[in-house]
Design brief:
CATH class of the largest domain: Alpha Beta
Structural class: alpha+beta
Number of strands: 4
Distance between the termini: 39 Å
Largest sheet: 4 strands, antiparallel
Order of helices and strands: EHEEHEH
CATH topology of the largest domain: Alpha-Beta Plaits
Strand order of the largest sheet: 2-3-1-4
Helix content: 40-55%
Number of domains: 2
Shape: elongated
CATH architecture of the largest domain: 2-Layer Sandwich
Number of helices: 3
Radius of gyration: 21 Å
Length: about 100
Protein backbone atom coordinates (compact mmCIF):
# COMPACT_ATOMS: atom_id res chain seq x y z
CA UNK A 1 0.00 0.00 0.00
CA UNK A 2 1.43 3.38 -0.96
CA UNK A 3 0.70 6.57 0.84
CA UNK A 4 0.58 9.54 -1.48
CA UNK A 5 1.34 12.81 0.24
CA UNK A 6 1.79 16.38 -0.81
CA UNK A 7 4.21 18.92 0.62
CA UNK A 8 3.15 22.56 0.63
CA UNK A 9 5.37 25.53 1.42
CA UNK A 10 3.47 28.65 2.36
CA UNK A 11 3.72 31.94 4.20
CA UNK A 12 1.12 33.88 6.15
CA UNK A 13 -0.44 30.75 7.65
CA UNK A 14 -2.92 31.73 10.34
CA UNK A 15 -2.39 29.96 13.71
CA UNK A 16 -5.98 28.64 13.86
CA UNK A 17 -5.61 27.11 10.38
CA UNK A 18 -2.27 25.57 11.36
CA UNK A 19 -3.96 23.96 14.37
CA UNK A 20 -6.80 22.64 12.19
CA UNK A 21 -4.34 21.16 9.69
CA UNK A 22 -2.42 19.36 12.43
CA UNK A 23 -5.32 18.19 14.58
CA UNK A 24 -8.02 17.40 12.02
CA UNK A 25 -6.23 16.73 8.75
CA UNK A 26 -3.20 14.73 9.85
CA UNK A 27 -0.79 17.37 8.62
CA UNK A 28 2.79 17.72 9.83
CA UNK A 29 4.01 21.31 10.01
CA UNK A 30 7.61 22.51 10.15
CA UNK A 31 8.50 26.16 10.55
CA UNK A 32 11.24 27.42 8.23
CA UNK A 33 11.67 31.03 9.27
CA UNK A 34 8.92 33.03 7.59
CA UNK A 35 7.73 29.94 5.70
CA UNK A 36 5.88 26.83 6.86
CA UNK A 37 6.27 23.39 5.28
CA UNK A 38 3.13 21.27 5.48
CA UNK A 39 3.10 17.56 4.71
CA UNK A 40 -0.34 15.95 4.45
CA UNK A 41 -2.33 13.32 2.59
CA UNK A 42 -2.70 14.18 -1.07
CA UNK A 43 -6.50 13.98 -0.83
CA UNK A 44 -6.40 16.88 1.68
CA UNK A 45 -4.16 19.06 -0.51
CA UNK A 46 -6.71 20.94 -2.62
CA UNK A 47 -8.90 21.88 0.33
CA UNK A 48 -5.95 23.01 2.48
CA UNK A 49 -4.55 25.04 -0.44
CA UNK A 50 -7.90 26.78 -0.86
CA UNK A 51 -8.12 27.51 2.89
CA UNK A 52 -4.62 28.97 3.01
CA UNK A 53 -5.33 31.25 0.05
CA UNK A 54 -8.80 32.25 1.35
CA UNK A 55 -7.27 33.23 4.71
CA UNK A 56 -4.72 35.54 3.05
CA UNK A 57 -1.75 33.17 2.98
CA UNK A 58 0.57 32.61 0.02
CA UNK A 59 1.63 29.32 -1.57
CA UNK A 60 5.29 29.11 -2.56
CA UNK A 61 5.40 25.50 -3.73
CA UNK A 62 3.40 22.29 -3.98
CA UNK A 63 5.34 19.02 -4.31
CA UNK A 64 3.74 15.58 -4.59
CA UNK A 65 5.53 12.87 -2.57
CA UNK A 66 4.98 9.25 -3.48
CA UNK A 67 6.45 6.17 -1.88
CA UNK A 68 8.72 4.26 -4.18
CA UNK A 69 8.40 0.50 -4.55
CA UNK A 70 11.60 0.24 -2.51
CA UNK A 71 9.99 2.24 0.34
CA UNK A 72 6.95 -0.04 0.29
CA UNK A 73 9.18 -3.14 0.38
CA UNK A 74 11.35 -1.82 3.23
CA UNK A 75 8.26 -0.88 5.29
CA UNK A 76 6.84 -4.39 4.77
CA UNK A 77 10.14 -5.99 5.83
CA UNK A 78 10.34 -3.79 8.94
CA UNK A 79 6.73 -4.58 9.86
CA UNK A 80 7.38 -8.31 9.37
CA UNK A 81 10.47 -8.10 11.57
CA UNK A 82 8.47 -6.38 14.33
CA UNK A 83 5.72 -9.00 14.09
CA UNK A 84 8.30 -11.78 14.26
CA UNK A 85 9.94 -10.23 17.32
CA UNK A 86 6.56 -9.89 19.06
CA UNK A 87 5.76 -13.52 18.28
CA UNK A 88 9.13 -14.66 19.70
CA UNK A 89 8.58 -12.59 22.86
CA UNK A 90 5.13 -14.12 23.37
CA UNK A 91 6.48 -17.64 22.83
CA UNK A 92 9.40 -17.07 25.21
CA UNK A 93 7.05 -15.73 27.93
CA UNK A 94 4.78 -18.72 27.47
CA UNK A 95 7.70 -21.13 27.75
CA UNK A 96 9.15 -19.39 30.81
CA UNK A 97 5.74 -19.56 32.49
CA UNK A 98 5.46 -23.28 31.76
CA UNK A 99 2.72 -22.80 29.15
CA UNK A 100 4.41 -24.74 26.34
CA UNK A 101 5.46 -28.33 26.72
Amino acid sequence: MTTDRVELVCSGLRPELATDIEEHRGGVLRSRGEYVEISLAEKQGDEVLAQILASGGSILSVTPRRQSLEDVFLNAVEEGARSGAEMRDTTERSISQGGAQ
